[in-house]
Amino acid sequence: MTTKKRILQAAKQEFIFNGFEAARMRSIADRAEVNKGLLHYYFKTKETLVTQIFSETFVELFTDLKRVFTSSKDIFQKIEEGVAVYIDFIMKNQEMPLFIISEMSRDPKQHLKRMKHSGMTPPFKELAKSIAQSQQLGLIRKDLAPKQFVLNMISLILFPVLAKPMVQFTHDLSEKEFKVMLEDRKKDVAQFLIHAIKA
Amino acid sequence: MTTKKRILQAAKQEFIFNGFEAARMRSIADRAEVNKGLLHYYFKTKETLVTQIFSETFVELFTDLKRVFTSSKDIFQKIEEGVAVYIDFIMKNQEMPLFIISEMSRDPKQHLKRMKHSGMTPPFKELAKSIAQSQQLGLIRKDLAPKQFVLNMISLILFPVLAKPMVQFTHDLSEKEFKVMLEDRKKDVAQFLIHAIKA
DNA sequence: GTCTATAATTTGATAGAC
DNA sequence: GTCTATCAAATTATAGAC
Asked: Which stretches of chain A are assigned E, i.e. beta strand?
């Protein structure tokens, strides 16, 4: 692996575990086992590092989700697959959602710049459209705004990892048991959602 | 208002908008319009300030929720009232949930100390118990773990404020419209939950 | 490309006058 | 109780040798 890649990977770990402000360039260099000066040689500033990390993340997740939501399958399959793909992603990147949300909140304008840099947008409009069509077909109850459903779906997917320490504590779950719970939620959340919206 | 109270209020604002690490003692002093030295005179350290703020928050929220979940009303009323009470709280303290969750994640052990200092615990076990009883009565479908329901309920309540900038951006909502949406979610979330669990 | 050394700021916290 | 002045430590970033 190249030095640049090693730095990027080390930075990702440092950022997601500590947040942007608490992340230390010194720690990143230590993790990557390179000299502190090299970080600036490759990436100039702390901000450049974080922008790069966000880009890679957005491209990876949104590409997969877009494929699911624009497929020709029926809405209930889209929900099941979408939930599974999303939860698969967060199982591999458990600390990333909190990092993104923290950064978004800390500096919304900067976050928009980072989104633009990645060239990707979340494919939620595609899902909302699919919900609306299924309402017309009578598959889903009509007293529910598609946008509301999308927000609820994302809430159920993301919150448990955002609040992971609280969930682990209140449910008394080991690291392994927490992962099992996330795995189970692929089916559980999909079924919960489908129960909530079926006509 | 006493100087101590003014400092506490200023610290709360600074912390919830910037997070613990990014919060500056200097900024807190400026917000409170007092000298920087006074912060240490009253609270000794940054950590003392944050512990005090958490305590007040936990006491306020959990007291109200416990009253709802241990009342004698039926489960569907408990859900409706619990959602309303919780959303009322976060409407008045929109940035608090992200601050708490960020801190919890940044330093779980320290967070437990802060919880203990407040003397309060979240009354979620009481709600789960109430769900289990209603399952026995045949009011709620039995293929759903009470703990899972509680987690889903909290997810739907908290996520929209945690991801507020993203929600505002993707739904194109002004500050006022976002508040209206939260207000609407008191009914919407309760109905969504009830649809999802009714036998 | 990689390192050492260090500059330039900024931070939380303290000491001491009033 | 409130202020000024300042310390000691830590942080990002740069300069320059190799």
From this structure: none
Note the CA–C1' distance, B93 to C2, in angstroms.
49
pTM surpassing 0.90? yes
Contact list, A154 vs chain B (CB under 8 Å): 159, 163
Length of chain B: 199
Give dist(CA B94, CA B78) in Å, integer: 23
What is the torsional sign of CA B133, B137, B142, B144? negative
Q: What SS3 state is found at A140?
A: strand
Name the CA radius of gyration of chain A, rounded.
19
List, for residues A48-94, the tens digit of each pLDDT value: 999 999 999 999 999 999 999 999 999 999 999 999 999 999 999 99
Question: How many C-alpha atoms does B27 have within 13 Å on its Cβ side?
Answer: 15
Do residues B51 and B33 both lie within one domain?
no
User: In the predicted model, is pLDDT for residue A1 greater than 90?
Assistant: no
Do residue A38 and residue A94 come from a single domain?
no
The DSSP call for residue B138 is T
Backbone φ, ψ for residue B104 (5° rounding): -55, -40
B75 and B23 in one domain? Answer: no
Say yes or no: B98 and B161 in one domain: yes
Same structural domain, B21 and B111? no
- For B14-39, what is each residue's pLDDT tens digit? 999 999 999 999 999 999 999 999 99
A71 and A30 within one domain: no
A195 touches chain B (CB under 8 A): yes
Q: Residues of A with CB below 8 A from B196's CB?
A: 192-193, 195-196
The C-alpha atoms of residue A65 and residue A67 are separated, in whole angstroms, by 5
In tens, the pLDDT along B143-176 reads 999 999 999 999 999 999 999 999 999 999 999 9
Q: Are residues B35 and B70 in the same domain?
A: no
Q: What CATH number is given to the structural domain containing A185?
A: 1.10.357
Enclosing domain of residue B4: 1-44
Regarding whether B138 and B123 lie in a shared domain, the answer is yes
* Domain total of chain A: 2
Q: Which residue of chain B is at minimal alpha-carbon distance from A193?
A: B196
DSSP one-letter code for A94 = T
Question: Residue A140 phi/psi, 5° resolution?
Answer: -125, 140
